[in-house]
Amino acid sequence: MSREKTLGVLGGGQLGRMFVQAAQRLGFDTLVLAPEAKVDGALSPAAQVSQHVVVADYADANALAALTQRCFAVTTEFENVPASVLAELAKPERKLAVTPQAGAVQIAQNRILEKQHFQFCGVPVAPYFVIESPQQLDCVQPDFYPAILKTARMGYDGKGQITVHNNAELHAAWDKLLRTSCVLEQRLALARECSVLLARQVDAAGAERLIHWPVQHNVHVDGILASTAVDALPALDDQRLVAAAQTIARDLNYVGVLCVEFFILDGGAWVVNEIAPRPHNSGHVTMDASSLSQFEAQVRVAAGLPLVQPRQQSSAVMLNVLGQAWAGGEPPPWGKIVALGSSTVGVHVHLYGKEEARAGRKMGHINITAATLADAWQTATLIQQLLH
Q1: Residue 214, preceding peptide bond in cis (omega within 30° of 0)
Q2: Which of 3, 223, 358, 373 has its CA 20 to 30 A from that of 156?
Q3: How far is CA 203 from the centre of its chain?
Q4: Taking the CA of residue 109 as centre, how many other CA atoms within 13 Å lie in the half-sphere pointing to its CB?
């Protein structure tokens, strides 16, 4: 393998799989490093399609040496890769381009640091308390409830989150979360949830390229993203969300693909929820509805290829396909689903190669593209019925 044409990726999941496929389309080889790249003889989604695979802990010295020797750049598909590993890989003597950078990932991995960064940027956040001691539990006033207690680290897809309605429930919830560092967010009345996906790179001279895709409108069910909709004709007020996301990225000096999630409140106000320092589930629509997918953008940043502002080619709806779609052990009726495509509506199925279908497990996604969002939703609704 040639070091000059090999990209390393930390993480073996479906985001890594789609990064690998995008890299290969641009002529690169890939090396996947992940402890779960092979489990019980089965390869993970990214390892199934990568030319090279290293099964090891992220901090394993031999594995990091292999990345250094065999790759010219390294990125990550998983936000909980230790920031210290990224810092180690970025040492000058390794001569590796590492994106995103360790400092930005460290902030994104900790909800306390994340909220402090948002406040530093001057963007609004939901009222919150930091919970790290029993004394801080008793500082919460009764009118703050209902609220959501969230672990400061390692929470995703609704994990590590408990809704509480009073101080007694807060004490019980913190015990259930093993008294780890948490944030307690006031539960706000939401009109909708949105996300802004962007990519940023900075060249050797310090010149910035910053691109973004249209605002994505998201629906979560039980803490897991169920659908994302993107209108080819974005609303004018979407620009305020894009501007806030750009401010967050610039103040982090972020390099890579970044997703910023927003809560839109009743009455039109908004707050920033969190950031993901990687491609994002809500950005999967870019694979079929945009001239540039989030994964190709990640490849371009990692490899030092120029970013260009993407052109939105259609309106689109993305549906997550979860394990419960395999009702009774039978797969979804793919023939009926793809048959819903037509000369005016595209139906694009993306499966992740996971063998075991479990409730809540992301097995794939389906993008539905059309000239109008109404047309895309009409077909998406029929697919939802077929997926149960």
Answers
A1: no
A2: 373
A3: 24
A4: 16
Residue 270 near residue 192 (C-beta atoms within 8 A) = no
Q: Which residues pair with 379 in a beta bridge?
A: none
Which helix (H) or strand (E) segment is 43 a member of?
strand 42-43
Q: Quick one: tokens of 61?
A: 């010295």
Distances (CA, A) of 379 to 282, 313, 323, 374: 19, 18, 21, 9
- Amino acid (one-letter) located at 134: P
Regions of the chain short of the pLDDT cut 50: none
Say if residue 251 is exposed, middle or buried (CB neighbours under 10 Å; 0-12, 13-18, 19+). middle
Residue type (1 letter), 357: A
Is the pTM higher than 0.90? The answer reads yes
- For residue 79, the model assigns a pLDDT of 86
Per-residue pLDDT, 283: 97
CA distance 345 to 9: 34
Q: Are 312 and 232 in contact (CB under 8 A)?
A: yes
